[in-house]
Design brief:
It is built from 19 helices and 15 strands. By secondary structure, it is an alpha/beta fold.
Length: 506
């Protein structure tokens, strides 16, 4: 499929796509009908060109209204990206960063691009730091760090732009600050019209029962790191890549640095071209790593958080989500890194290793953004219910690589913890007996497949995910079991299993 290339007018300004022009008309129509000021939120999928759109809006607003514009960003990468787009639109702008203390040349510019924290410091020191501002544009408006600045622009029009009009903080909904939502073209429409690549998604069922939800409503980094460091999860990742993405330029998104480093070592030891990147890298190291990724065929880049916004590499052919998330915003940001269409790429691959598709839907699926914007709490409850269902319905399956480790097949291979508990209960026996039966089952399997005691201990370590699954199935049958009890049971089970292996094989 041929890439949609932007063209330029005779005046040198970038010519917009039809859907972008339509969005600009809708936004100005809403600005015009507001007697005093408008508070608008504009939604458009990642890759749809939000920066190009609000740069053109800035140019037109300055020209038509004769007032200045401020554009707020939260990342350095977005700061640079925005100033380039403004220049292409013919807007002379000034960056307000930590080195700009005073604005002696304020009158020479009609547009200012600022990092949120920097501008907040300047305005707290001097409320008149900026003057005659008619429009404030908030990039990535779903982040709540911008709210602290709104009090300084109470008379200015507000335009928030985002791919996902859902607040990053459940307790601070976007409809408290924006009165009207304008929904742009959908992902499906942009794919159909040739502006975005289509995605082929592959899902792998994962046991997420051990994950904990933090105060922000998403899974904690600690619980994710612990789960995704398991042998079975590492093996599942490598197998999925080899099966679905081998030979493609690939981004791997992880929850924490520990997991990303493990992923780097996993692929490196397997002989693949791979690098790791996280927020602790210096600006120079970050540039060097991204340059390597850009210029290396079949490269794999494993990262944490840093590439979800402000990063654009059209040659990306595969996205691996090596984490679970409840955040629709993060989900779309990660996938969006692969959605750019080129002359040689009309499709890209998504590998989901966190049950995210079942929880949040396919990337291309229709989403009723108006409903989510108006009733965000209802949406969060739906995600919670869907997630609870996924946890309850999960059935562990031993991965192929682990099956090979237990090649001496026995009748014990078909052990079913849920069925064992049901059988005991039907006979009036205590479910706790299922734990002893399970330990004996694992002991028999290991004894038949291990050469010696130390080999048996290695097999116990490889069964960590399976052990946790069985223990959590038992905990769920109790209904009142606490997380601390479940963790204690998992540790106790492992200790008893190692003791039984010692008795059998020493």
């Amino acid at each position: 499929m041929e890439e949609k290339q932007a063209s330029f007018t005779t005046s040198g300004f970038k010519e917009l796509y039809p859907y972008q022009e339509e969005a600009i008309e809708q936004i100005f129509s809403e600005l015009d009908k507001s007697p005093k000021k408008a508070d608008i939120l504009f939604q458009l999928p990642t890759g749809g060109g939000k920066t190009v759109i609000f740069s053109e809006i800035s140019r037109k607003f300055i020209e038509l209204r004769g007032k200045k514009v401020v554009i707020l960003t939260h990342r350095v990468e977005l700061l640079v990206q925005t100033t380039k787009a403004l220049k292409a639109a013919g807007v002379k702008s000034k960056i307000i960063d930590r080195d700009v203390k005073e604005l002696h040349d304020r009158d020479e510019y009609d547009c200012f691009v600022a990092m949120v924290e920097t501008l907040n410091n300047r305005l707290n020191e001097n409320e008149n730091y900026l003057a005659d501002i008619g429009l404030v544009i908030v990039d990535e408006a779903h982040y709540n760090s911008f709210r602290k600045l709104f009090k300084f622009f109470e008379k200015a029009n507000m335009l928030g732009v985002t791919a996902t009009p859902l607040s990053s903080n459940r307790n601070l909904p976007l409809n408290e600050n924006y009165g009207h939502l304008i929904v742009g073209h959908s992902i499906a429409d942009l794919i159909k019209d040739g502006y975005l690549s289509n995605a082929v998604t592959y899902t792998y069922n994962v046991n997420l029962r051990s994950l904990k939800v933090g105060p922000d409503g998403d899974y904690t980094v600690g619980s994710l790191d612990r789960l995704y460091s398991l042998y079975t999860m590492q093996d599942r990742l490598l197998s999925a890549y080899q099966e679905r993405a081998q030979g493609k330029k690939t981004l791997v998104f992880n929850s924490g640095i520990a997991t990303s480093v493990r992923v780097y070592e996993l692929f490196k030891n397997a002989g693949y071209k791979v690098k790791h990147l996280d927020s602790t890298f210096s600006a120079g190291d970050r540039r060097e790593t991204l340059e390597w990724f850009r210029n290396t065929p079949d490269a794999i880049l494993t990262s944490v958080g840093i590439l979800t916004t402000g990063f654009d590499e059209p040659s990306v052919e595969a996205i691996i989500i090596n984490r679970a998330t409840r955040s629709l915003t993060l989900y779309h940001q990660m996938i969006g890194r692969g959605s750019r269409i080129t002359e040689t790429k009309s499709k890209f691959v998504i590998i989901d290793l966190g049950n995210n598709v079942q929880r949040l839907g396919l990337w291309q699926d229709y989403i009723n953004w108006a409903d989510i914007f108006k009733y965000p709490e209802k949406y969060f409850e739906q995600i919670h219910e869907r997630d609870s269902g996924l946890m309850a319905d999960y059935n562990y399956e031993r991965p192929p690589s682990l099956i090979e480790k237990f090649s001496a097949n026995t009748e014990e291979d078909d052990f079913d913890m849920k069925e064992t508990i049901r059988h005991l209960q039907s006979r009036g026996q205590k479910p706790k007996k299922a734990i002893d039966i399970s330990i004996e089952n694992h002991t028999t399997q290991i004894a038949k497949n291990a050469e010696d005691y130390y080999d048996g201990l290695e097999l116990v370590e490889l069964l960590e995910e399976e052990i946790e699954y069985r223990c959590r199935v038992y905990c769920n049958s109790l209904h009142s079991a606490t997380e601390s009890y479940c963790q204690w049971l998992i540790d106790t089970y492992t200790r008893k299993l190692k003791s039984r292996i010692r008795q059998e094989m020493m």
